[in-house]
Description:
Layout lengths: L4 H6 L7 E5 L4 E3 L11 E6 L5 E5 L4 E4 L7 E3 L7 E2 L8 E3 L5 E7 L9 E6 L7 E6 L4 E8 L5 E7 L4 E7 L7 E2 L5 E4 L5 E7 L5 E9 L7 E6 L5 E6 L5 E5 L4 E4 L7 E2 L13 E4 L5 E7 L7 E7 L5 E5 L7 E6 L5 E5 L2 E3 L9 E2 L2 E5 L7 E2 L10 E2 L10 E8 L3 E8 L5 E10 L2 E8 L6 E9 L2 E9 L2
Parallel strand pairs: 1-27
Antiparallel strand pairs: 1-33, 2-32, 3-4, 4-5, 5-6, 7-9, 8-9, 9-10, 10-11, 12-13, 13-14, 14-15, 16-17, 17-18, 18-19, 20-21, 21-22, 22-23, 24-25, 25-26, 26-27, 28-29, 29-32, 30-31, 34-35, 35-38, 36-37, 36-39, 39-40
Amino acid sequence: MNHLNIxxxxxxxxxxxxxxxxQTGWSLQSNPIPPxxxxxxxxxxxxxxxxxxxxxxxxxxxxxxxxxxxxxxxxPFPNDTVSSxxxxxxxxxxxxxxxxWKINWLGTSFxxxxxxxxHQTTDGGITWTKKILSTTAGDAGVRIQFVDExxxxxxxxxxxxxxxxFLRTTDGGNNWSSFNGAGIFYFVDANNGWSFFGSGTxxxxxxxxxxxxxxxxxxxxxxxxxxxxxxxNAMQFTDINNGWIVGDSGKILKTTDGxxxxxxxxxxxxxxxxxxxxxxxxxxxxxxxxxxxxxxNENPQRVILRTTNGGASWTKQYPPNSYGIxxxxxxxxxxxxxxxxxxxxxxxxxxxxxxxxxAIGYTNxxxxxxxxxxxxxxxxxxxxxxxxxxxxxxTTIIKYSxxxxxxxxxxxxxxxxxxxxxxxxxxxxxxxxxxxxxxxKLASGAYFYRMKAGSFVETKxxxxxx
Length: 466
């Protein structure tokens, strides 16, 4: 797998409320690249309401002109042996329908990396050119960003030395020169940009730092030092004032004054051990965060957090995938896509044996189909609906209704009556609810879920087919 979580942390050595729940409003689109040990998808970005691109491994991209109903494989240089990072999703950037760039490294894996190359187009992918930036053993091109057709930045990480190289172009990628990089960067125009980095590996050794430049990366000023647990994974600014950073240990930071002040967001309702890998905001108010809800090594539920008021309140969405979400992109408040890991074979074994086919998610209603809160219409009685889908693998949704406030429990049992897990256990206001059940660790077979609320008791059967 071309994942580079550790890279974010070791890079530092070279660098200076209210909560509501929703049913899933997401569906999966078809990935035409056949399953393999390296079929991972990275960044997703749309250049019109219907035309979009996804960065794929092995020098490939996916392209759609019908909002993702069909995705087609694009291989700019089929005879080249190149790779790219899927996690973090930093290897592709488009500034309009014609101008796009994808950075790769020469070689088949991290251990085989021996240079950095950019594939770029100025006619919407009809033709491509390439620019080799390095042929040094250990070098891997891992991040690229442009703010217009001329101004762009790249990051090359050298695995053999643990060093990083930062390059900048002002002519669309024809010529590149070094600049003073300071970690993972994000620019909003040719001059204003931010970067973050930390100490150690895997986010365990603070402090983590945020810096700002006003001259395209020539100079950087320290804005924030964070000594709490949990490093940073992704950053986005929608304009010169509004920005977000997400990371490990449930960490989410926001700024509304260009980084002069950073506020830690604590009202999302996710487990404090959660890891967030991507963030996308349309403006200062409406945005989504790809995360999970639990300890990363204990098969937590995958969650997309959504806010429409700048983080004052959040809703949880449960997408139809069981692995980490790498990238989210919305064209407007309704139409959005995500890319995620998707293991399809040997999933309980080591990474070297797992077979992957990256998942593509789509929504046309902001990810929302119904909100679990007290503002819903009041049901006339208790109900427990049949889970959907059924049979399922490995996640399914269970809907239920509560006509008045009271304690509700929903538990899952195996075919012998042994309790497997508790999905709901607490007081609920009158309303309509849904809960996601992830059975990734369970064997195929028949299971039962039972709801108790006051004198109401009902049991239904669900079928897990792997």
